[in-house]
């Protein structure tokens, strides 16, 4: 019952995305964007990752999430205005609190994940086996529903922790 309530709250309380976006990107990415906007509410990142005045979600690789998230720019995430930033290289991740790694960047995981971990950046992707490859949160579409897996070990190495509410909602947890 608690699980169902939390899932409903996750979507009801999420920042509003523009209704016109449904015509441009698949519904799946609208849902994934809501996850990206709400996961920070259930995550603690280390002090060194809280640089700047905003909460910055960085994106690397080819994904429609940039255009979807753009309409939420400035929305408050943990009392900080949301910024969206496209990065090309790990050296550009200075202001990131969260890094979404597109599937197109699978070949670069051996470089991206250790650098993000060293900086205390939360890593999220929708690529297959992302948590098994060392990422922290993997968004997966199963039976037309977006769900997620967590890698507690990877998060712990970056001094990132997840609330018990998020742990209860995860489909799979790697310890």
Q: What do you see in this structure?
A:
By secondary structure, the protein is an alpha/beta fold. The chain has a single domain (2-174), classed as Rossmann fold, CATH 3.40.50. The chain is built from six helices and ten strands. It has helices at 2-12, 27-38, 65-70, 109-119, 152-157, 164-169; strands at 43-44, 55-60, 76-77, 80-86, 98-101, 122-125, 137-142, 145-151, 161-162, 172-174. The strands form two sheets. Strands 3-4-2-5-6-7-8-10 form an eight-stranded mixed β-sheet, with helices on both faces.
- N-to-C SSE series? HHEEHEEEHEEEHEHE
Distance between the termini: 25 Å
Query: Structural class, please?
Result: alpha/beta
Tally of extended strands?
Answer: 10
Overall tally of structural domains:
1
Q: Would you identify the regions where 5 or more consecutive residues have pLDDT less than 50?
A: 1-22
Task: Tell me the strand percentage band.
Answer: 15-25%
The pLDDT mean sits at 87
- From the spread of the alpha carbons, the general shape counts as globular
Any idea what the CATH architecture is?
3-Layer(aba) Sandwich
CATH class: Alpha Beta
User: Which percent range fits the helix content?
Assistant: 25-40%
Radius of gyration: 15 Å
- How are the strands ordered across the major sheet? 3-4-2-5-6-7-8-10
* Number of H- or I-type helical stretches: 6
Largest sheet: 8 strands, mixed
């Amino acid at each position: 019952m608690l699980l169902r309530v939390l899932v409903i709250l996750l979507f009801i309380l999420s920042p509003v995305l523009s209704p016109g976006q449904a015509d441009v990107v698949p519904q799946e990415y609208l849902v994934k964007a809501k996850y990206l906007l709400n996961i920070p509410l259930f995550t603690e990142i280390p002090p060194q990752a809280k640089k700047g005045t905003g909460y910055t979600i960085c994106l690397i690789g080819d994904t429609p999430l940039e255009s979807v998230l753009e309409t939420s720019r400035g929305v408050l995430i943990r009392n900080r205005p949301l910024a969206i930033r496209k990065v090309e290289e790990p050296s550009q991740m200075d202001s990131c609190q969260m890094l979404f790694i597109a599937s197109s960047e699978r070949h670069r995981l051996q470089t991206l994940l250790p650098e993000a971990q060293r900086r205390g950046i939360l890593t999220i992707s929708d690529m297959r086996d992302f948590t098994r490859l060392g990422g922290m949160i993997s968004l997966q579409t199963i039976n037309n529903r977006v769900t997620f897996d967590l890698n507690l070990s990877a998060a712990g190495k970056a001094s990132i922790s997840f609330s018990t509410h998020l742990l209860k909602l995860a489909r799979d947890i790697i310890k």
